[in-house]
User: Which sequence fits this backbone?
């Protein structure tokens, strides 16, 4: 992990004179909820310092005051549009600590909900990626098609984004009547729609030439930096928690992981799109294999107490492996909850990727890291 | 007799009266027109403060499309904007920046507090890093509750704001 | 808690307008008409219909509509009318306004949404007015360390330069503000002013993002000026004139785009770049440099820059039409005026008033204008379309495109034109 | 000379209705251009009031000095706005200055080509060849990053 | 008034004078470039004026030629100034004298 | 150290938990697909092997906290953590750190920092998480960066801990020696209170 | 040439979309339908499942004033406060009932889950924006009001794209 | 009309020429220089040579002025607003200027130039191109060489020599 070097021809004579410091954010269309301090020499970025923490709300501290159930609304707030997935490891861990056993049907419904949520997240990410590339249609189409799945989730859980759907011991309420048909119809249409993105986004020569060969993260670097999710898989490492360490019923479902070798922004932006198609496949498969009836939730005692010990659970969220480390000390409240979030893990790659890039590549490289600032800040 | 009437004082009074009448006459239609323009062209500033920005984005997506109300999202610079939608939690790190953004915007400007966090702190009422609502730092015009508010609720909030602008005085003085 | 004043009623609004009308009429009667008379007495008047326009005559003409037509016609031949209204500023601003509306609606349709809808009841056609009124009543912020004269002047100069560009575009045979015999060169000269205004305004704002944006704009406009100039040389070679009206007239049988498609494509791309439209909107790339050189402009200043941009868009589209699509030429679709209108004029029902010599514009001119507007709108559509389809490109790619690919293509175009000329297909003694 | 000859010979080339109007008096031709200036002036005269009216109508609050700082993404700005700053593409501007001349120069040739014998194209071909050489070199140079 | 050659020549003489004043007084390299431009323009004006009054195309032709050369000169001149500025961080001609050694 | 007794209880409890967990994971897969989860009985042996390797190398310096399916926990003294990390990277093939969590134990007057290691390159380790815990002394009146709460930084071994360690530094006041960039990350620039994740820092009203 | 075909393809796709139907839900005129196909909402009583993100509805005759909802909410957002209701309502012995501050409520539905007497439900009435913070506090009397359900749009998929109808 | 235009142009040209040299800020100086160049273009128009006039506008104002502005913005902010001139030489310069103007003016007014007036039609701009391609073609080639040499030389000059130890400190 040698320190990044400047590109040839960029040695600077008098640093104070030619370098301009730009604050990108927090009020900036290309920063999200964070600030990136970049220093540019002409058109080239020579130094970059991400400054997250604008949405740091102390979730982990607050989780120490609430019992296992009341924590649920809190812990899904970091990624409200991927709320099923961010709750997933916590719920799995809490189930292990509380010694609960989830009914079969609930497991399938959880998988469906989390895959739907993954698509919803990815579509939103794609939409913002469009804004960052100056492509307003690329914002509108995914943001619109995303609503199809949000509609499904709304039918399942009653809420558009913050579902609070997973609880220790299962899910909160059963699927509505006639859900399978509606789900199949809308997911099929959704899949058809996202395939249409190819012409305008992914095979658009301008987009390709803008993102290809920019911000290249080599395989070794990707591993060494501990990146995860699409960033990792774009660099040629085939690692998906759903495959490697299947939780719930993922080992019974039929899907592939997508890997690309090049490790540039283009690969990083294309992998989530391919993943969405796999998600559609998983949803259809799960709808088929799901037991048609049965209980979906084990009844919890009020204020359940966790067993003494600790668990570390992880799942594959829309951004990558999401771990949850819970320490319990036999009280109704967990002693410590730590979310190991993929955004925070991917953020470390940002300075590495940006230095030496052109200023025009900054938004695309930054957002191709599949970064959601609120999650990183917790 | 007529000569007595035409004095400088009387002329002054006459001109003053004329001015008053003119101002009154101009004030209302002009104010109405200006307010009408302001109603239909609310450009929100691009500041995301927390997770409510997801639903703010959804509100400008094709399904809800706030551009129907003349609200365009894609404005980069705060100098051209007139609406701050505080999209959620204001942390102690963000608060001074938010205030600065508000200060740097041109008059007239409006504030919508979106989400429980922006109104009272919401879920984070006991967090160490979150402000209990933004009333302390910005004058809020409309509160939009929810966590996050549905886009419909946000649109309803915008309509309330339009209603409010309609009833505001357009200018202090000509 | 905010206090809300009672609602403002539409009836009061109407009443206040009536009030105003009353006052305006009163002031007109008391001050306006005497003033006009005075002016008419002291100013040299034109001769219309063989009569010297004396004040009394003018008054009678004001009363009798049929006699006022000559005045209008005489006014329409003046430079002021051309500059302010028809082929000049008013016409261009109207098309620019239409463009903004169409752009928003079309983009919305492409993105499967509605676009402006509620402002102005019918599909949001008054949206632009709303924006304009808002902008004009918005505070203008001048940054503290800005260079004030330049900062104030930049938006106005921008509009003015765009207007000067508009002045060179012929709309119909004989209807052009400035019929200049080196019109094409004049166009290049005017285009050359935009980078200067941009960089000056960017420099004057004394802020980082405008400065970067201004420099980007400069690079962009400057680099694409050369392919722009070269891509039009083909047309000049084939017509042998630099006068835009003559170039347009030379295409009465077929437009040059048939023979010089490469030149047209190159010109179109450079046009997009000069207009700073997506995919070449780097100077305003909001995700990189906030709003580029417009970052510090607030209120009406921003509005003026937008107006200038769209005037420029109209002018470029018009130039494309004139150079490659045959300008105003097209089959006659305007219905001919009935004989009696031309000779006798119209009789208006109960109040018997005759308007002899009514068709203020000739049939050819109206037809030409219709064709010109139709073609321009078509070109504008194609200028607007990429905004929905392409992302923004990067500075180095842009410069590469301009300097390597487009200049090469422009020379290919020149050699095609030369080949056509020397092979005897076009030109003196050619087949066509 | 040849140009006059062709003009008198009645050009068979029908596209051109008339050849350029020639001024008898000094400054006669300038009248055509005055309308461009008039248009420029009209736009200034019409748009400057817009700014003035806007200044009159708009509410103004200047109590806050922060408002007049340069805008920098919600951050109190640091450093100089107009820094000594340059992008790496200075070479393109240098090239522009030279090739702009060349490009407009070609119009002197392009607009006369109809009236000239064919062998008059040779000098311009030579000229272009030289300029192409220079341009190739310049483009090669401008690809370098260290020019600014 | 404008129908006479003399006026144009006089204007050009005035410009020439101003240019020479600038060249002799200013030490700012960029200002000196301005002065040079003014002198060149005075010359161009003369050329075109004579070309118009003794109707001959040579005047305009030479003026075009001169403008083109001026563009080349400015490009080289500014490059020189930039090189010098990069070395000395100043644009004072007096500082550049040490260029010679 | 008083934590030993606690550790034993933890071990017992986790064994119980493991049993229940086994039961849970056996139930839903009766006969559908035997393939992927077939080696489940052997797995603890594999994890045991990892644990044994560490114990073999370091002996007394490390203690095994627990061995569960796919999870191994070890505990190291603060002086040896660097060495152990190097060993896990070079010999055991763990190549990155998933998460770094700081846990405050006011009763023990210690702060624990837990590294969760996992591996992308070694396919046999893809299910594994190795938990390396180490403890630093805790001070009641912390002056972050300038007191005894210090640990060696693992950044030169696992680059991926860079931001995590910055976070732990500001959240618990553990100074990492050898970390090049011990700056504040998430909290406001003017934060002057206790590090917030310490147990004696109370949220308002709680 | 790949570039050219790519550009043409993109333009083509863009133009094709101009012909598609608009997806927009024209909100103030149309509202999303929560009734029927798959939605978990009971139009007759006006109540939905606990996750539904609308305001609450309180059945006065069921509420016993047991404060369980308030206790549940304490861990979430402290949105519920118990207030005295007029004695003459005679709904429950302590004559206290929940009052919800929607400036704080996050619509998690945990209070609904917590209520043992099925007195508290969530509805689909989401139009809660207000000019003032006080306007966001809903007293038991306001909570009793049954929301009107005049909503009829849902996503429909046809050959010319998805629409609301 | 033409007289008024001539007067206005003279004032603009000479005034802005003085301003270009004397204004404190280099940026405003460049703007004033643009005024001079534009004024000269106006004279060209008055002299019925629109091609040259437009050439002047496009080349001088459109590109040379841009290059100058750009270079001005490249130098340090203090230098833009600093007056660098010789105090001692100032009066000498002014005297030189006046002497030259008076002398040349006297010569001109004295010479036969005053008699030259014309009624001939102006030269058409197409004749310029014709000239270049026929009579002046060696000059055209020469110009090509000069321009090529200029761009090559300018680019070679503008290249920055990297310093080896110039790594930035951060
Ligand atoms: S109100 Fe809810 S969604 Fe909005 S910022 Fe707060 S927690 Fe996030
Ligand atoms: S609503 Fe339910 S939980 Fe709340 S006080 Fe009434 S009965 Fe008790
Ligand atoms: S929905 Fe949640 S936040 Fe709202 S009152 Fe009920 S428990 Fe409290």
Assistant:
């Amino acid at each position: 992990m040698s320190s990044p070097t400047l590109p040839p021809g960029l040695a600077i004579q008098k640093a104070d004179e030619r370098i301009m410091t730009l604050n990108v954010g927090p009020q900036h269309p290309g920063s999200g909820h964070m600030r990136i301090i970049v220093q540019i020499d002409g058109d080239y970025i020579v130094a970059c310092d991400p400054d997250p923490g604008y949405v740091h709300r102390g979730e982990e501290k607050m989780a120490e005051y609430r019992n296992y159930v009341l924590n649920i609304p809190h812990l899904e707030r970091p990624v409200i549009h991927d709320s099923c997935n961010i709750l997933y490891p916590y719920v799995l861990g809490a189930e292990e600590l509380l010694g609960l056993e989830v009914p079969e049907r609930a497991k399938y419904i959880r998988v469906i909900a989390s895959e739907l949520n993954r698509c919803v997240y990815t579509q939103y990410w794609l939409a913002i990626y469009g804004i960052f590339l100056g492509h307003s249609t690329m914002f509108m189409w995914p943001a619109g098609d995303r609503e199809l799945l949000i509609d499904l989730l709304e039918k399942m859980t009653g809420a558009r984004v913050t579902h609070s759907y997973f609880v220790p011991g299962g899910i909160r309420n059963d699927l509505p009547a006639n859900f399978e048909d509606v789900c199949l119809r809308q997911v099929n249409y959704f899949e058809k729609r996202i395939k249409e993105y190819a012409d305008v986004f992914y095979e658009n020569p301008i987009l390709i030439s803008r993102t290809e060969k920019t911000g290249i993260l080599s395989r070794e670097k990707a591993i060494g930096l501990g990146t995860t999710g699409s960033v990792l898989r774009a660099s040629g490492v085939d690692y998906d928690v759903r495959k490697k360490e299947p939780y719930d019923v993922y080992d019974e479902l039929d899907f592939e992981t997508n890997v690309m070798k090049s490790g540039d922004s283009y690969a990083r932006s294309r992998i989530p799109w391919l993943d969405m198609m796999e998600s559609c496949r998983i949803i259809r498969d799960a709808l088929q294999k799901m037991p048609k009836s049965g209980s979906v939730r084990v009844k919890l005692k009020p204020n359940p107490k966790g067993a003494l010990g600790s668990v570390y659970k992880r799942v594959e969220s829309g951004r990558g492996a999401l771990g949850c480390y819970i320490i319990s000390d036999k009280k109704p409240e967990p002693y410590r909850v730590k979310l190991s979030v993929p955004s925070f893990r991917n953020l470390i790659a940002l300075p590495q990727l940006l230095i030496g890039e052109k200023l025009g590549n900054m938004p695309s490289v930054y957002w191709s890291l599949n970064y959601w600032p609120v999650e990183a800040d917790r | 007799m007529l000569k007595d009437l035409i004095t400088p004082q009387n002329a002054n009074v006459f001109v003053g009266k004329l001015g008053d009448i003119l101002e009154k006459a101009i004030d209302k239609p002009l104010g109405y027109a200006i307010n009408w323009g302001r109603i239909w062209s609310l450009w929100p500033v691009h500041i995301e403060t927390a997770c409510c920005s997801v639903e703010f984005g959804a509100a400008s997506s094709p399904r809800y499309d706030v551009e129907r109300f003349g609200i365009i999202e894609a404005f980069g610079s705060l100098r051209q904007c007139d609406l701050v939608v505080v999209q959620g939690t204001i942390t102690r790190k963000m608060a001074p920046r938010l205030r600065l953004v508000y200060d740097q915007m041109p008059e007239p400007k409006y504030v919508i507090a979106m989400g429980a966090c922006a109104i009272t702190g919401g879920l984070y009422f006991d967090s160490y890093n979150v402000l209990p609502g933004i009333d302390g730092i910005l004058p809020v015009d409309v509160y939009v509750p929810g966590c996050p508010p549905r886009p419909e609720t946000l649109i309803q909030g915008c309509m309330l704001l339009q209603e409010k602008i309609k009833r505001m005085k357009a200018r202090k003085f000509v | 808690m905010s206090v809300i004043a009672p609602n403002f009623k539409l009836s009061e609004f109407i009443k206040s307008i009536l009030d105003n009308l009353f006052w305006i009429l009163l002031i007109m009667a008391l001050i306006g008409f005497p003033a006009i008379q005075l002016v008419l007495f002291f100013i040299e008047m034109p001769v219309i219909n063989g009569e010297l326009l004396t004040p009394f005559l003018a008054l009678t003409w004001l009363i009798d509509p049929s006699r006022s037509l000559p005045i209008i016609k005489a006014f329409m031949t003046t430079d002021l009318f051309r500059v302010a209204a028809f082929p000049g500023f008013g016409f261009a601003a109207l098309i620019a306004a239409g463009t903004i509306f169409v752009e928003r609606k079309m983009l919305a349709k492409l993105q499967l949404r509605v676009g402006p809808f509620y402002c102005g009841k019918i599909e949001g056609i008054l949206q632009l007015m709303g924006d304009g009124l808002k902008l004009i009543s918005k505070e203008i912020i001048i940054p503290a360390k800005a260079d004030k004269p330049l900062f104030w002047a930049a938006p106005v100069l921008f509009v003015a330069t765009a207007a000067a560009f508009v002045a060179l575009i012929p709309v119909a045979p004989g209807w052009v503000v400035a019929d200049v015999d080196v019109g094409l060169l004049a166009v290049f000269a005017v285009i050359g002013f935009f980078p200067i205004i941009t960089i000056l305004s960017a420099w004057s704002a004394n802020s980082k993002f405008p400065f970067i944006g201004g420099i980007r704009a400069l690079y962009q406009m400057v680099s694409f000026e050369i392919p722009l100039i070269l891509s039009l040389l083909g047309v000049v070679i084939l017509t042998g004139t630099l006068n835009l009206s003559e170039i347009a007239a030379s295409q009465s049988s077929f437009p040059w785009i048939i023979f010089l498609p490469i030149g047209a494509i190159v010109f179109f791309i450079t046009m997009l770049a000069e207009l700073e439209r997506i995919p070449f909107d780097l100077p305003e790339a909001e995700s990189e440099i906030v709003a580029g050189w417009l970052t510090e402009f607030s209120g009406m200043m921003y509005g003026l820059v937008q107006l200038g941009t769209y005037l420029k868009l109209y002018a470029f589209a018009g130039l494309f039409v004139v150079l490659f699509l045959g300008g105003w030429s097209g089959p006659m679709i305007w219905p001919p005026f009935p004989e009696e209108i031309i000779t006798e004029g119209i009789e208006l029902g109960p109040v018997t008033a005759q308007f002899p010599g009514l068709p203020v514009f000739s049939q050819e001119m109206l037809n030409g204008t219709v064709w010109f507007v139709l073609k321009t709108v078509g070109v504008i559509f194609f200028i607007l379309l990429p905004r929905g389809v392409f992302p923004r490109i990067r500075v180095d790619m842009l410069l590469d495109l301009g300097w390597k690919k487009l200049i090469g293509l422009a020379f290919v175009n020149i050699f095609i034109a030369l080949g056509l000329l020397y092979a005897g297909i076009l030109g003196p003694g050619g087949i066509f | 000379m040849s140009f006059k000859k062709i003009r008198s010979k009645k050009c068979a080339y029908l596209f051109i209705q008339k050849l350029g109007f020639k001024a008898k008096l000094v400054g006669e031709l300038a009248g055509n251009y005055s309308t461009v200036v008039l248009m420029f002036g009209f736009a200034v005269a019409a748009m400057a009031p817009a700014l003035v009216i806007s200044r009159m109508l708009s509410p103004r609050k200047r109590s806050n000095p922060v408002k007049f700082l340069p805008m920098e993404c919600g951050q109190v700005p640091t450093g100089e706005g107009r820094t000594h700053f340059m992008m790496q593409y200075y070479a393109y501007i240098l090239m522009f200055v030279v090739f702009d001349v060349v490009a407009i120069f070609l119009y002197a040739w392009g607009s006369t080509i109809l009236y000239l014998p064919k062998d008059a194209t040779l000098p311009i071909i030579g000229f272009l060849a030289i300029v192409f050489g220079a341009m190739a070199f310049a483009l090669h140079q401008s690809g370098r990053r260290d020019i600014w | 008034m404008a129908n006479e050659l003399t006026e144009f020549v006089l204007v050009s003489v005035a410009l020439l004078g101003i240019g020479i004043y600038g060249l002799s007084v200013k030490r700012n390299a960029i200002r000196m470039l301005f002065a040079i431009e003014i002198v060149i323009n005075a010359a161009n004006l003369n050329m075109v004026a004579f070309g118009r009054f003794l109707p001959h195309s040579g005047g305009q032709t030479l003026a075009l030629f001169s403008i083109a050369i001026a563009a080349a000169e400015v490009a080289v001149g500014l490059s020189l100034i930039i090189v010098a500025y990069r070395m000395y961080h100043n644009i004072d001609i007096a500082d550049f004298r040490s260029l010679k050694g | 150290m008083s934590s030993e007794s606690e550790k034993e209880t933890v071990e017992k409890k986790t064994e119980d938990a493991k049993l229940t967990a086994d039961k849970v994971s056996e139930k839903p897969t009766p006969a559908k697909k035997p393939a992927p989860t077939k080696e489940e009985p052997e797995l603890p042996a594999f994890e045991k092997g990892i644990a044994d390797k560490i114990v073999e190398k370091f002996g007394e310096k490390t203690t095994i906290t627990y061995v569960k399916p796919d999870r191994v926990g070890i505990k190291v003294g603060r002086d040896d953590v660097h060495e152990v990390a190097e060993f896990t990277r070079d010999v055991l093939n763990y190549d990155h750190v998933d998460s770094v969590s700081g846990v405050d134990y006011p009763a023990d007057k210690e702060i624990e920092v837990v590294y969760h290691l996992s591996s992308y390159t070694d396919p046999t380790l893809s299910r594994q998480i190795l938990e390396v815990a180490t403890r630093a002394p805790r001070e009641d009146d912390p002056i972050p960066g300038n007191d005894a709460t210090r640990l060696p930084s693992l950044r030169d071994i696992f680059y991926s801990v860079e931001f995590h360690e910055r976070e732990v530094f500001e959240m618990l006041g553990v100074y990492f020696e050898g970390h090049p960039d011990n700056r504040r990350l998430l909290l406001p620039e003017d934060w002057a209170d206790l590090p917030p994740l310490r147990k004696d820092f109370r949220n308002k009203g709680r | 040439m790949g570039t050219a075909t790519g550009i043409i393809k993109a333009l083509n796709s863009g133009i094709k979309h101009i012909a598609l139907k608009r997806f927009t839900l024209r909100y103030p005129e149309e509202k999303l339908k929560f009734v029927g196909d798959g939605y978990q909402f009971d139009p007759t009583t006006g109540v939905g499942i606990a996750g539904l993100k609308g305001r609450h509805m309180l059945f006065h005759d069921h509420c016993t004033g047991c404060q369980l909802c308030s206790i549940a909410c304490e861990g979430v957002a402290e949105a519920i406060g118990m207030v005295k209701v007029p004695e003459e309502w005679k709904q429950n012995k302590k004559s206290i009932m929940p009052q919800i501050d929607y400036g704080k409520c996050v619509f998690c539905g945990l209070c609904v889950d917590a209520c043992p007497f099925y007195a508290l439900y969530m509805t689909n009435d989401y139009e809660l924006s207000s000019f003032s913070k006080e306007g966001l506090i809903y007293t038991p009397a306001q909570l009793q009001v049954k929301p009107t359900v005049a909503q009829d749009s849902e996503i429909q998929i046809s050959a010319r794209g998805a629409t609301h109808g | 009309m033409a007289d008024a235009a001539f007067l206005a142009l003279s004032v603009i040209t000479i005034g802005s020429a003085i301003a270009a040299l004397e204004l404190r800020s280099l940026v405003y100086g460049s703007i004033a220089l643009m005024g001079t160049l534009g004024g000269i273009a106006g004279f060209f128009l008055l002299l019925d040579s629109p091609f040259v006039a437009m050439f002047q506008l496009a080349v001088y104002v459109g590109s040379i002025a841009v290059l100058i502005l750009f270079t001005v913005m490249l130098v340090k902010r203090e230098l833009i607003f600093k007056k660098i001139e010789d105090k001692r030489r100032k009066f000498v310069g002014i005297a030189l200027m006046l002497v030259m103007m008076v002398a040349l003016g006297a010569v001109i007014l004295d010479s036969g130039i005053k008699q030259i007036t014309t009624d001939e039609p102006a030269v058409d701009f197409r004749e310029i191109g014709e000239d270049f391609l026929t009579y002046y073609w060696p000059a055209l080639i020469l110009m090509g060489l000069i321009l090529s040499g200029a761009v090559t030389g300018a680019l070679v000059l503008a290249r920055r020599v990297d310093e080896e130890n110039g790594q930035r400190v951060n």
